[in-house]
């Protein structure tokens, strides 16, 4: 992959640019004079020209291209915009004021094939409703259909969705490796770091003591997920923390798994009273029980997304570390296929 190009002889500015690029998961090609930059000019996804080299670059009449920036550490330089026009740059970046913006630009430059993935959250109306199983199966079904899918475990006390998939020993990054990150995460770097199985990448927790996920870390992961994946499925905890709220605010749709019994309905109504504060499109996946379906849906007051009948063999299958069959003729596979068809934009 081609790297962003920096043209500067200002060592203090270069140190800043290397540090900022590292925050975006990027490495740089560096030219101290314009002649050294010539082989990289058309190949680099982004070119950052230090103000110290602007006039020298302009004198070489480089080919016109997009994604050229003039970078200065002198906020009082009245000549910046003249230099910007002279080198064909699209904007002036003044450090340190524009540092966060430059992190974003470097991260964008390292995502050569940006996507616009949908975020779907899944939450249980009560404990044991099967929300984690639905989230995992939805992600598995999507990846089997060759949708690049990210499954995010947001329930730090849930035992680990990687264990549910039978891949708790798989090498790769977990939340503990990401919680300290601030700012933008490069989508390609995230995808490369996580445990992956075909078109499915999984972000879960380490075993042992599990720290809370900061809202900023969840925001960075979901933004990278949307840029790098077709679908992001988030398994939420029932007790909403700041990271879960962050996910809800970015969700295209939230699925609530509700059981058709009195306590299940009452618990789901309470969950919905919190969930609906943070997201608009909430739908129910119903587990049939002693209360008839119509009564449950009237009580919940949200649209139905589908029905998930009990599957006696599913728990035993998962406990053996095996994945459930999700073919179109299976109950669970048919439900996941229907949900994906209804919730994702047509391609």
From TrEMBL:
Its source organism is Nonomuraea fuscirosea
The UniProt transmembrane annotation reads none
Q: Give the InterPro entries listed for this entry.
A: Cellulose_synthase_operon_BcsQ (IPR017746), P-loop_NTPase (IPR027417), ParA/MinD_ATPase (IPR050625), Rv3660c (IPR022521), Rv3660c_N (IPR059050)
GO CC entries: cytoplasmic side of plasma membrane; cytosol
Q: Record's NCBIfam families?
A: CpaE_hom_Actino
User: What's a Gene Ontology MF term here?
Assistant: ATP binding
Which PANTHER family does this entry report, sorted A to Z?
A: SEPTUM SITE DETERMINING PROTEIN, SEPTUM SITE-DETERMINING PROTEIN MIND HOMOLOG, CHLOROPLASTIC-RELATED
- Give the source lineage, highest ranks first: Bacteria, Bacillati, Actinomycetota, Actinomycetes, Streptosporangiales
Q: Name one Pfam family in it.
A: Rv3660c_N
What is the protein's name according to its record?
Answer: Secretion/DNA translocation related CpaE-like protein
Q: Biological process (GO) annotations?
A: negative regulation of cell division
